[in-house]
Input
Amino acid sequence: MLANIEKNILLFLLISVGLITLPHIYHIPASIFGFFALLLTWRFIGIWKPSCLPGKFLLFLLTVGGLVLLYSQHQGLFGRDAGTRLFMTALALKLLEIRQERDLYLIVFLAFIVATSQFLYEQSIAMAGYILFVCCVLLGTLVAINSRRQNTLNALKTAAVILAQALPLAIVLFIFFPRVEAPRWMLFEDKSRAKTGLSDSMEPGSISDLGFSDELVFRVRFQGQIPPNRLRYWRGPVFSVTDGKRWTAAKRYTYTTAAEPDFREPAYRYTLLLEPQNNNWVFALEMAGDYPPQLRMNSEYLLTRSGNPDKRAEYPITSYPSYRTGALEAHKLRINTQLPGPASQKTTSLVNQLGGFDTRHEQFIDHVLQHFNRENFSYTLTPPLMEDNPIESFLFETRSGFCSHYAAAFTYLMRAANIPARVVTGYHGGVLNPVGNFLEIRQADAHAWTEVWLENRGWVRVDPTAAVAPERIEQNVNIEQQIASRNISFFSADSELARQLDWLKQARQLWSSLDYNWQRWVINYHSANQTQFLASLGIESLKQMLFWLIGLGALFTAVLSWLLFSRKVKTADKILHHYRRFCARLAKAGLKRNAGEGPVDFAARSKKAYADHAAEIDEITDLFIKLRYQKESSQEDLSRMAEKVKRLKIGR
Amino acid sequence: MNTLSIKDRFRLSRFFAGEKPSDEAIPLNQRRIFILPSKRGLSFVVLILLLLLIAFVYNNNLAYFLTFLLASVFFIGILHSYKALAGLTVQKGQCKPVFAGERAVFEIHIDNPIPVPRLSLEIDLHDTTQLTLAPYEKKAVRLYAPTGRRGHQPCGTITLSSGYPLGLFRAWSPMRFNLSVLVYPKPWPQEIPFPETGGGSSDQGKTEKGTDDFYGIQEYQRGDSIKRIHWKAYAKGQGLFSKQYSGEQGDELWLSYETCAGYGNEERLSRLCRWVLDAEKAGLRYGLKLPGQKIGLGIGPSHRARCLEALALF
Output
């Protein structure tokens, strides 16, 4: 069946196919991955025992089996998951049907598609490196197919060289290829495309490493003035119920509506462009006053939308940062002062010490914030785990955490003083894109703050994180960026452990800086970023982009051609060129070199005819033979030969 | 190398048939090498477009990057394809005459003057020959072609091609040499009795030479049998002489087109060809008479070749 396809090529191909699909073990159902693994193993065995490969009928049955398996997943044909499954099943079936070289190509092409699909699941540096490596192996397979008798290791080397040569051109394309957002009809209704985003509960103690992604959540384009950063709180789900660890929304009141607050000018009018989401929350600037009728506001002032959150959507909204909410109903008061149990002695004494029981509420709030600010509290994205009683651990022991820890602890302290308080999550800040003149809010801008209900003022926003890391609130500095540039340190410098782990810390910081830049420059190099980046280089129109693309592409191609066809080929040509000139001179004098006549014979004949030039003829011929047939030929000999030929003057 | 006029440069035949036949070695350079994507290359383009679509729909930058990387690999594949052939020189070699219906063997010499191996070259004439050249290697390649009619049959266009390294492009260089094979008539398949010698003797007159008695020596003439060369004289440096014997007249044979039986021209030539071969095998001295052409008596490979050539070109 496979007489003309060598074993080692097959082995090479199967290994690369195995490597390319391996990471999908996390993404596709076990049944399909099992099906794939079974067929791949079968094919592996088939290398040594071709007789055990399936015949046409069995292959037909397997195809039907694969289709049934796909159908049983109810995923349709389009979209990320369905597509990946489809291509993997096709790849598996094609593996069992290798008859010609053409089939090998089809398998390699399918494998490239599967490789691309990996990026739809994971975009880390490690994954990119891995896929690059496997692509090199796949190209190596193609080289091996096309170079009979060459060993596969050499083929791999050739493929690596080709990939390395293609890299600069690929980077130019990457930078200058215009990015355009896909039109909406092209976005498949694909549940798995759901983004990670805010969750419907908050559990600060259980997260020890907050992975912020740079993924875009929404964009806001303001008509007129853009509010300052300290007012840019984009309201998300509100949590008022807690069991001491976990904070959740009060389900009963999620669907009721609240009385509209009193709004005061200034008003901000803007258009909110939501990217596909997990939930139907619409993150409006606090506090939304006018919004389109398809949005609803619940009793916690959160805007929600009906319909599919997987789709991008656009809403014109008007918000008023100054507002006053009305009285608090009895049941809401109860919920917002609810505690899982009586506060501990320690907590009660802290509340007492800060004046929770005897001063005005506003003053107590100030005291708590000052407490956070003056005591040794720090802001970190990688807090220690606090499994039991996270709030007390945070308040009295670890004293480091991110916004959720502060919001939870603050709310807890308020409630311990019998002040109604709740946690609000959402996003804060957003980066102004100067080109498009809109704000971009990314997952990394996720934030948690608190609301405290005060007499005469209603719900008032208090952000305890601001007391600890004001830079986050006031300047909207990306915390991750700061970590990357070492502006925020997690450890106190004089700790013995810290000193010992210094190199580890540095490596970690280096990695996080690398990862940040990867996120920023590679993963998120979308249309707005591209426009911004190219504008900083002075490239502003599409026409200029194309000029640069073509210009740099041509430049790299020229450099590469020069590298590929430098001296080696040219020297060989030159030797021949000089010898031809020599022959032409003699022919002009009347002695023509016969077809197939060797240089030695020709030299003998010409020496006879032109005895007075014998020495020169000999020398040129010797040089020619030396240059052409000896492995090591020097540039010097070549120029000497050129010189001799030039000087040779044979009269008629 | 001479330059091409603009008009010649854009002639389509350069793509398929190559430039005009050459006697000299042909170095493969940018003028000679043509590159187009192969079928696989075209499907690779479709793959790239598909990946681009995936990257576009999912707005995924790494997918974009992989797409661009493969597109760049495809693009620089053009340079690598060129490199697979560039610098080789091809020269024509020998070509021995054959009988019609036999395979003609054209020999060409391919020279790799650079320290890079050339993998998976293909040479097309009638069939495809696969070839690998080591660094600095020079190889003689025999190409086979079927022969049809007698006469000179030109070698035609030899195409050297390669799909190395990725098989996405095919680089090829068509070339023609002043190389042709002489095709003898096809020998008549059955043995046929020799004609009477009478026709020949009347023209030539009886001679006293034969194999029985040594008659004398005379200067070697083309066509004399090697067996009769006076080796002793040659060894003494006196030159080449043939020994002559008397009584050879019985073995003299005149092969004449006029007296040959057969329908039509080709059949007669075919019979004559058979006679030439048989006479040579039998060690007879023979001559050939064609209308307007006569080859005197003789024996030996070169005489045979002369006779066959005359038949081939008649």
In short: The radius of gyration of chain A is 36 Å.
